[in-house]
Amino acid sequence: MGKTQDALKKLQIVNERIKTSHKIVVEQRYLNRLVKRLSQSVNGVKNLPNLQTVQALFNKARNIYLNGDGYLTSRERRNLPFILANASDEPGMVEFIFRQIDLQKFSVFKRAVFVYFQTYGDEQLTVKLRGYLLDAIDKDPRKNNISYLYNHAELICPMGPQKMAEHFKNGVKQYFDTISLPMVLQHSRFVHWSLIRYFQKVSDDLSHKMETLCIVYKDEADKIIIPQIAESLILSVNQSGNQDYRDSLLNILHHEMGDPRYSHQQTKWSQVGENAKTIFISWLKRGDLDLFFGIIDRTMRSDLNYQVNAKQMWHDRKVFWEKYLGKMYYTKVVLAPEAAGIARREYWNKILDYGKLDSSNKNQSLFVFSIEKYVFVEPSYNGTLRIWHLDNSPVPLDSALKNHYPINYSDDIVHNYNEVEAFVHSGNWQSRVSWWIRTHC
């Protein structure tokens, strides 16, 4: 009896240990191996060939097509769909390959569907491959058993991307889960076309489109479509008047596409219409002006000599320059160390680019902008408004300032004798500046 009780106690201890959670450590190499194996299995399509294998198969098939030399094994015939894109440049070779492909075999059919999703948009190949796939489904409806070809293969019809885009209104990831779309196809060209259709053509709540944009932006494989969806988002956000959406879109597009005013970044903006670009530039200008005067207000409030009339002075100056925002083209903010620290801490979600200023006043800030062929530098505190010809600008304008060396306030601004005019902020300075702008600009 004693032995039995001892055995029961041991079993109880073992049972408690089993119920207790244990931290399991898996070496990275095993995780990598698992990811690789999972990525090679696409809804039953196992052992996807690598690029070297595809290239070797293409070379062999091309030699057979041109010279009639050699033959293809059953495994090679099964993988023929993967070389269709390569064969498009060789006249007649696509048709030759299709004659070698037996889409009635389920393993071949699944590979052809995979290729259709990955190469979507190649108009000639897409149309031909779609026809062969639909014909195979008509002959054997059981091929619809592929999970993501539900509802009579609606995704393979000519309006496939539009049909997928409509489902994105309920959530992109949710839709992929619903139809069990393989992970490797969730970043395919077909999905990218569908996402573009969603942003451009599908009527949906703007808040949901902004959420979807954030999902796209966070994925390295998907963010390549951002230049193609930028215009529709800019116009929608501008129409909404939502400040938070504007700031979020401003940050994302500036990070991915840069500043459309810069000549070296205009290629990224080539798919965006002039109206949308003008709106985006107006956001950039407004952001720079608000940042400059916001930092002034913040630094002056920390100053023991801050007075109410000083606040009114800067308010009036901001109102004055706001009248010229539409006339401005380039805008820059240049900050000394203390002012830059405030910008990073308190305006981190609004600051896109700023220049570094070497000044005896660590709170010094500059608002630099161009109107027509002139550059204006408006300093904070007791500085003088100075004007230069655009060709002699003391501050680089056609590129990001973060890539330039600090600007020395004394040497580059105050003692830069290429200036064409200067105005001290006293008396009726605003009237005098307005007259000068009307006369010269």
Characterise this structure:
The chain is an alpha/beta fold and 441 residues long. Among the domains are: 42-158, no CATH class; 277-440, no CATH class. Helix content is 54%, strand content 8%. It has 20 helices and seven strands. It has a seven-stranded mixed beta sheet with strand order 6-2-1-3-4-5-7. Helix 7 packs antiparallel against helix 8. The protein is elongated and about 90 Å long. The N and C termini lie far apart (107 Å).
Q: What is the residue-averaged pLDDT?
A: 88
Main pleated-sheet profile:
7 strands, mixed
Strand-pairing-aware structural class: alpha/beta
Q: Please tell me how large the radius of gyration is.
A: 32 Å
Distance between the termini: 107 Å
The helix-strand sequence is HHHHHHHHHHHHHHHHHEHEEEEEHEH
Portion in beta strands = 5-15%
Bulk shape: elongated
Structure summary, number of beta strands: 7
* Count of helix runs: 20
Unreliable spans: none
Spatial order of the strands forming the largest sheet: 6-2-1-3-4-5-7
The residue fraction in helices comes out at: 40-55%
Give a summary of the structure in a few sentences.
With 441 residues, the protein is of the alpha/beta class.
Supply the key terms.
about 450 residues; seven-stranded mixed β-sheet
How do the helices and strands line up, and which of them pair or pack?
Layout: H1 2-19, H2 28-39, H3 51-67, H4 74-78, H5 84-87, H6 93-100, H7 106-118, H8 123-139, H9 150-153, H10 160-167, H11 172-179, H12 189-201, H13 206-217, H14 226-240, H15 243-257, H16 274-301, H17 308-322, E1 328-335, H18 337-346, E2 355-358, E3 365-371, E4 374-379, E5 385-389, E6 407-408, H19 409-414, E7 421-423, H20 429-440
Parallel strand pairs: 1-2, 2-6
Antiparallel strand pairs: 1-3, 3-4, 4-5, 5-7
Helix pairs in contact: 7-8, 10-12, 13-14, 14-15, 14-16, 16-17
